[in-house]
Amino acid sequence: MNVESLLYVLGITTVVSPLALLACMGLSSLFGIKLSESVVSKLTQITIATALVPAVAILILMLATDSRFVSVDVGDWVSIPQQHFHFHLKFIFDRLSVPFLLLSLVLCGVVGAFTRRYLHREQGYNRFFLLYSLFLAGMVLSAVAGTIETLFFGWEMVGLSSALLVAYFHERESPVKNGQRVWSVYRLADAAFLIGALTMHHLTGEGDFASFVGSEPWPGGTAQLSSTNALIVGLLLLLAASGKSALVPFSGWLPRAMEGPTPSSAVFYGSLSVHLGAYLLLRVSPVLEASPLLQWIVVFVGAVSAIAGSVMSRVQSDVKSSLAYASLSQVGIIVVEIGLGYYYLALVHIVGHACMRTLQLLRAPTLLSDYHAMENAIGGRWSREPSKFAMWLPKDLQLWAYRFGFERGYMDAVLDNWIVRPFVAAFRWADRQERRWTDWLSTEPSRESDKTELHPESFAEPLPQGIKQHASQA
Amino acid sequence: MPELHFPWLESAIVTPLLGAIIAYFIRDGLKARMCAIMVATLTFAFAIGEFIDFSLLASFEAHDHWDLVTFFFNQDIFVIDELSAPLLPLATVVYLVAILATLRTKIQRFSFPLTLLSESILIATFSCRASWVLVALLSLATVPPWLELRARNRCTRVFTLHMGLFILLLSLGYGLLHFRSSPKEPALLAGALLTAATLLRSGIVPVHCWMTDLFEKASFGTAILFVTPLTGAFAVMRLVLPVAPDWALHWIALLSLVTAIYASGMALVQSEARRFFCYLFLSNASLVLVGLELVTPIGLTGALCVWLSVGLSLTGFGLTLRSIESRIGRVSLTDYHGLYDQMPSMAGFFLLTGLAAIGFPGTIGFIAIELLVEGAVEVYPQVGSAVVIAAALNGIAILHAYFRIFTGRRPSTHTSLTARWPERVSVLLLTLLIVGGGIAPQSSVASRYHAAVELRRHRENFSEVEPGTSEHAEKETHEAHQSGTAE
What does the alpha-carbon distance between residue B273 and residue B280 come to, in Å, rounded to a whole number? Predict the structure, then answer.
């Protein structure tokens, strides 16, 4: 077996392992087979190992052969040759994808091991790992995607698993509402991504990254787009990245996402998912370079996000929200680095930040307990010196900044008041007009759905005879 | 014309018809359901047989072996072609799972004889080319739901007015088309009437209210079965596409796009599950029409693929809602019901079918939506993105409904809400098709592409076109067949 064949086999193994875990978990759920905690845990460990070992082997082989770019071409998944439509499955291993892949696998492995104890005997244990496997498969696919369609494939899987994990504690209303909000932002970001991808496809005729960012290994390459086209496509992708990485003005969902269990907060929002937008910008960096205006917009969005995240993280009253906004400020800085063209710095920053934030989030619950123990030992509150920088600021500005941070930058309020409410009001008005129309046609109230009980499921139980009689008399 | 090896079409049409007669005389509801299940299974087997037989023929169209209808009437009435070949298994599987998933609690409300009669009419419709028989069948299909509304003592005015108008426009339009003095004569008025009729049947805004009214008043199963096979889109394909000029089709596509967005927005503000499903379906069905009327090979291929994905996934989605409704009554979406713990497999299936409808990766809808969006962007670079927006809004609506139904505090009932075995079989069958079609989409895409090319060729043969356009279509057909042979 030559080196190329070996790399091909290793690449395929890395991609197939998480998909096999997803198939296992999905089929067992569908057939109603309840896997024991130890089986689930073992399956997860085996998957991480069978994906991580080949990924490390690829890295070693690349270093040994001084290769900067390995392409694993699976071929056309779907094609209509006459119309030049191809959905090409291709995975690439280069200086960007390999570190991100290794980071994803290592952190998912750590979080998987942590969760085994953290969610021990929890009712939704298997549900968590089903969503975890969906997330892992999505991350691996996104990391090594060689075409924009494959990246979109993984991107969507990450989005769904994230939203459902935010709503993991689904007996309570608040996590569910937050999950819905995360999903809504993700869907809009996904729409921007898809439109951007199709525009790119339309302009270059191919979905392959090499066709529009050049065949040179990352971060080299020159975009095969004019400055205007690069600006249009780049703005759409920046919008997609902003939704995924919670950049301004979509930052409101980030602290809400912390309603999920701590392991998912750590892996999804502290370390991996929140960096996926930055990863997308890194992957299409030659497109950014094709338009200086676009680069400055990227820098601006990153800088605003970093400052807003920094202000907001200082006034949060719970540790996970504070960490979430601290993550935002770091992601903002990473985006600034990308806008300025420091791609390697941004990549190193992603890896370092992701590891540190995972550690912080996993440590957060016990840290609180440690603080309590320390405060009990010293017999009072831990005193904190006020920030020297803040003391230099005018009082009004301090108050404004506090209010801005406390209200989370008013971003949710703006989105709710300016987009969601007018949207809902317009369609409710249309619904009322339809009701009038069908009532008029029917010459009677036309909607039986008005009589729907709010909670019919609570009365599905047959009532005892005495109560039934009493109810019927009433 | 090539001949199938067995009278699959006639068998698939006659079997449910006979089944309807037998079921009518069975008084016991459980026995009638068993009879309907057997008949629907047999019909499904015939439809599968037709599909396999036709695929092996590698022809664009074929008719039955021992074709009795041709023998008596001396013309090919029931003919299968690449457009309709997969629609028959789709229609029969939709009926099979709907009958299979009908619980005891719904036996008295859901009429099996009328359902089997509708199935027979639908299969006959899908086996028909443009003719008076097709017009008659499209009209006849509106009768069983109307009879059910009458039997349930519900007001039929909205349905009657809309369907009456549909039948009138359809008959007038086809009459004008049929009785033209020369085939070269422009069919502008006929085309306009046929377009209006088919748009009405498809529920395009603003003539969509009959659909919400049907979901309000008919049994959920009947309403699902009346709309999910997309008979309106079939009428567009057979009757409108060949005669309508390009500019008219592009306007219809825009109207469909508006419907798709409007319906997705309306789905988000509904407070009851049936109405929510109706708008969700309407939005997705309009996307099929968008693709059909783009008349580009990619757009048409996308539309035909979305047709299959929407047919399968939204039938599954609707049947899940129906299963829940069978247990707890009409489902309000204004609060959380917390049903996940009692029906986890149904929750999973609800999500899977909903996501398949919006083209989530790994499901049958993914490539279909990709093709459709690509086709739309190709024709309307600016507005084509609206398809993506509609899909995004539908995605938000689906998760919203999922959260409302399956999350929240667990209800206090001790009654078992777990899925029964027939429901499990239905769920597994549809899951297999949805995921299987998502993992290996090439064969269905290739087949739909051949059909799209043929559709274009028929359209160009029918209308007066510039020289060379038909040649181009012929070339496309030739290439499509070549690629099919190579595969």
Answer: 10
A87 vs B contacts (CB less than 8 Å)? 367, 370
Give pLDDT tens digits for B262-275: 999 999 999 999 99
Question: CA-to-CA distance for B375 and B291, rounded, in angstroms?
Answer: 7
Peptide linkage before A445 cis (omega within 30 of 0): no
Tokens 């130890």 correspond to A38
Cβ pair A198:B212 closer than 8 A: no
State the pTM of this model: 0.91
Quick check: A87 and B367 CB within 8 A? yes
Counting one residue from chain A and one from chain B, the pairs whose CB atoms sit within 8 A come to 203
Closest-CA distance of chain A to residue B75, Å: 35
Is the sign of the CA dihedral A388, A393, A398, A402 positive or negative? negative
Residue A461: strand, helix, or coil: coil
d(Cα A160, Cα B399) in Å, to the nearest integer? 10
Top residue of A15, A78, A125, A164 to mutate, by most chain B CBs within 10 Å, is: A78
The two structure tokens encoding residue A398: 């301090």
Q: What percent of chain B has pLDDT over 90?
A: 55
- B270 vs A: CB within 8 A: yes
CA-CA distance, A229 to A360, in Å (whole number)?
A: 41
Residues 6 or more apart whose CB falls under 8 angstroms from that of A4 comprise: none
Separation CA B357–CA A318 (nearest Å):
39
Residue with token string 């791609």: A343
- Contacts B371 to A, Cβ<8 Å: 85
Residue type, A300: F
- The Cα B79–Cα B62 span in angstroms is 6
Q: What is the ipTM of this complex?
A: 0.90
Which phi and psi angles does A90 have, rounded to 5°?
A: -145, 135
Strand A85-94 to strand A69-80: parallel, antiparallel, or no bridges (unpaired)?
antiparallel
Q: Which amino acid is at A406?
A: F
Q: Is the Cβ of A259 closer than 8 Å to some Cβ of chain B?
A: no
Q: What average pLDDT does this structure show over B444-471? A: 71
In chain B, residues with a C-beta closer than 8 Å to the C-beta of A83 are: 297-298, 301, 449
- CA–CA gap between residue B87 and residue B97 (Å, rounded): 15
Three-state SS for B216-258 is HHCCHHHHHHHHCCCHHHHHHHHHHCCCCCHHHHHHHHHHHHH
Distance from the Cα of A202 to chain B's closest Cα (Å) equals 8
Nearest residue to B284 (alpha-carbon basis) of B195, B206, B397: B397
State how far the Cα of B222 lies from the Cα of B236, in Å rounded to an integer.
22
Cα B368 from Cα A87, distance rounded (Å)? 12
Tokens standing for residue B412: 């206090």
B471: pLDDT confidence band, cut at 50, 70 and 90? very low
- What is the spatial distance between Cα B84 and Cα B13, in angstroms, rounded to a whole number? 14
pLDDT 10s digits, B301-322: 999 999 999 999 999 999 999 9
Which positions in chain A touch B360 (Cβ < 8 Å)?
156, 160
At B343, the amino acid letter reads M
Q: Do B399 and A170 touch (CB under 8 A)?
A: no
**Is A354 a residue whose pLDDT tops 90?**
yes
- B186/B204: higher pLDDT: B204
**What is the H or E stretch that residue A241 is in?**
helix A227-244
Q: Does A28 touch chain B (CB under 8 A)?
A: no
Percent of chain A with pLDDT over 70: 95
The identity of residue B228, as a single letter, is T
Structure-token pair, residue A165: 């994990």
Q: Which amino acid is at A7?
A: L
Selection from A155, A15, A2 nearest residue A89 by Cα: A15
| A362 closest CA partner among A99, A170, A169, A108 | A108
The partner residue sitting opposite B155, judged by closest CB among A32, A442, A455, is A442
What residue has token string 């029917």? A442
